[in-house]
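Need a sequence for this fold. Nothing fancy.
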């Protein structure tokens, strides 16, 4: 029983840190709500465009294509991130690592071809 409480005792600093983080975050949110200014003006509600006069409203909706391109960018960006550790350990992984990466690249390239075939990258 003593070893059980000893093992749980190693997590106490982590739990304290999480609790302090939650209290700090919640207190900052509540303090800004209570102490922050509430004077809204037309200028504060207007769209900020780097010092230029606003052209459109900030509440304009984006097309679905915008989000599809963003998701594809993240997907292919993650592909490159997975290639770095593989390239560093290329010699140690041997043929197994090479075949695994080629299968990974073929799978992602087939996904890219599917996206191109569906026309998701065409901005009509």
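Here you go.
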């Amino acid at each position: 029983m003593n070893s059980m409480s000893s093992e749980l005792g190693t997590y106490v600093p982590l739990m304290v840190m999480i609790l302090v983080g939650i209290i700090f975050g919640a207190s900052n949110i509540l303090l800004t709500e209570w102490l922050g200014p509430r004077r809204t003006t037309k200028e504060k509600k207007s769209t900020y465009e780097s010092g230029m006069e606003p052209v459109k409203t900030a509440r304009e909706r984006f097309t679905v294509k915008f989000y599809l391109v963003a998701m594809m960018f993240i997907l292919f960006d993650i592909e490159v991130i997975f290639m770095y550790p593989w390239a560093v350990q290329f010699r140690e992984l041997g043929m197994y690592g090479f075949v695994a990466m080629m299968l990974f690249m073929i799978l992602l390239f087939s996904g890219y071809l599917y996206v191109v075939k569906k026309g998701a990258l065409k901005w009509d």
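For context: Helices lie at 2-9, 12-35, 42-45, 64-88, 90-118.
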